[in-house]
Every structure is written in structure tokens, then in C-alpha cells.
Amino acid sequence: MVQALLLYAIGLKANDRGSMADDMLSKAIDIALAIGMNDREFAIRNGCGNRLLEESWRRTWWELYVADGFFAGVSQRTNFRLRDVPTDVPLPCEEVEYASGYVPLSRTLEEYDDSAFAEDEVEYSSFAYRIDSVRNLGKVLAVTSEDVLDFRAIETADSCLVNWMLHLPDSKKEAISRDGQLDHMVFQAHMITDASTILLHKPRSTLDDYRSADEIRTCVKQCAPLVSTQARETHTAKCAEAARRLSHLVRLPIQPPLTRLTPFFTCAVVMASVVHLCAWSLVPPNYGGTGTGTGSSENNSCAGGLLQDCSSEATAAAVVGMGPDGDAVLKELIRLSMGALKTLAAQWPLAKTAAGQVKGVAGELFRAKREGAGMKDG
């Protein structure tokens, strides 16, 4: 029943039926906790002495945990129910091991957490790194409320995101494995980490000043600026870099196509789109083109009130980590996101809704920049 409700909830979410999806996931969690699925003994008791079946039960628990994190991240709510539920369920093995029927001895979450201090470097399964990325998402969600003023908790969440990347083994640093195939678990782990980075840093950055992006409501939540623990430009740079990494995932030479990936990739693309749009609003029209480059407000008009204060081209480009061709680069990144959402929309109604919202804001900003360029030429 837990597995059925979990799959049903994910399908409902992807079909843009969020409220019903949340209800189904909540029921799955209620049942899982009632039967003790968060206890390592559950898999043993119900595995009938079959290691493959035991692994299936462990995977069910951890998939429920990941889905709960996904749902919380998409709605940006702090009640990630399973975040603080005690569990000693061992970590899943590699996908190829599970598919082959050979399940090695399981490793624990405690061993994973202590692995950085081990004498020998130990590589864990892709699923394990995915679980850890969701744990970090939980830490980020805990500090996304306006009333959170705990600088240490905010900095700890940031450190966890950076540490996750720094301690990845070489084989997990790219979503394409050594045999040229897509590792779906690693793909999702990177996706979650980059999305978490955006959730942590965007409300504390200069990018959050662009309010027209508030028209995009699917997978993102409008909130007041949050307390910064670093210079706002630092938060901006981290946010912009995370969005570019998400765009890199779109460009991967992957089979199957985008429509066969996790439906939650839609929300990651939307988050990247919002960041790119906000960054594009910082960069004056035709920046790096035929303009005089004097940096005067007269030459860099932000037309229609849609663009942010672009009084300094160099400053604007530096803030979002762009060079002199920033306007063109960001335009292509936005086109990439729109194309990905258009492709995903063929499969998922959630993506269709998001694609319309992103296209609407992008079109409005494009027209404002074009008018601004006309004013500049005039």
C-alpha cells in the first residue's frame, strides 16, 4: 500500500494535482510510520529471508523519504515530515547490484556521515548520495522562513551543500557514468543540491529584487527577502552558478529523453528559469554589443520599469558572473529552459502550466529589453 500510494502521489503531482498528491503522500507516510518501516528490523521481518526483498523494503522507505523532501521543496514548506523521524534503515545498494539480484552487505547512514574521517576513501551508492542531498534540502527548508534569524543554522546549511559536492567521489561528480549511460540517482542528487542552493541563496541575493518573476508560481514560492549571512552579491553569485549547473543537466547527452526523467526535473528547470530571468533583468540590453559602454544611466536605460537598476554594466555583469556577452548568454539559457519545459509539457501537465508562466515573463522582459535598446540607440 505504501508503494502504491507513493507512486500515485508522484503521478498526481506531475499532473498538476498538488493538493490530492499531498494527501496521498501523507497517507503513505502515516502507514509507513504506523508499521515501523523506519526501523531496520522491518525489512528483515518482512523479507522472508530474501536479501533482494529486504533491499526492496529499504528502498521503499528511502524513496518515501526522498519524495517527502521533493514535495516539501517544490512547495517550499518547512514541514518535511520525515526529516527528523529517527531511522536506522541501512542505505540502498547500487542500482546495478539491485537489478542483478546481488545485494551486498548494507552500509549505515552513520558510516556514511563518518566516511570523510576514514583512513581509506569509501564510495557509497548513488542512491546514498541522493538521500544525503535530500537531507541537505531539509536543512535549507528549515531556514527559509522569515522569522529564522539563526545565522549559524543558515551557514551550516550552506556548508552542507558545499561539502556534499567537495566529498563526492570522482565517479559521482557527473551524471553520465563511465559507460556513457545516465545515472538517474546521481542526476537527481545533483538536481536536488543545485535546487537547494537556489532556495537558500536567492531570497538573500540581489536577484530577488526583480518582482516580475513573481508571475511564475509553479514550483516556486514568492517570499520576502531573508536575512543575509554574507554580502548579497555572494548569495547572488552562488545562486546564479547553481542555476547554470541545472542548465548543464538539461544539455546532457542523455537517453532516455527528458520526458523519461523524474517529473520533478520540471521544478528544477523552473527554479533555474527564475534565476536566469532575474539575472537577465540585471544586464542592460545589448550589453557587450554596439553600446558605448560608458556605464551611464542614460546609455543603459532599463525600459518600462521591468528591468532593475542597470546604471553600471560592469557591476551588473559581475554580480551574475557574466562577462561582456552576458545578455546573449542569459538569453540562450532562458531559451534552453523554455525548450526543456516545452518538451516536458508533452508528458506532464505540471510542466505545461510552468512553461506558460515562464514564457509569459520571458516575453515581457524581452520586449522591455528591446524597447530599452531602442531608447539607447535613439
Automatic annotation (TrEMBL):
GO terms for biological process: DNA-templated transcription. It holds the Pfam family Fungal_trans. It comes from the Eukaryota. Residues 21-98 form the Xylanolytic transcriptional activator regulatory domain. Coiled coil: none annotated. Keywords: Nucleus. The keyword Nucleus applies. GO terms for molecular function: DNA binding; zinc ion binding. This is Putative c6 zinc finger domain containing protein. It comes from Diplodia seriata. The lineage of its organism: Eukaryota, Fungi, Dikarya, Ascomycota, Pezizomycotina.
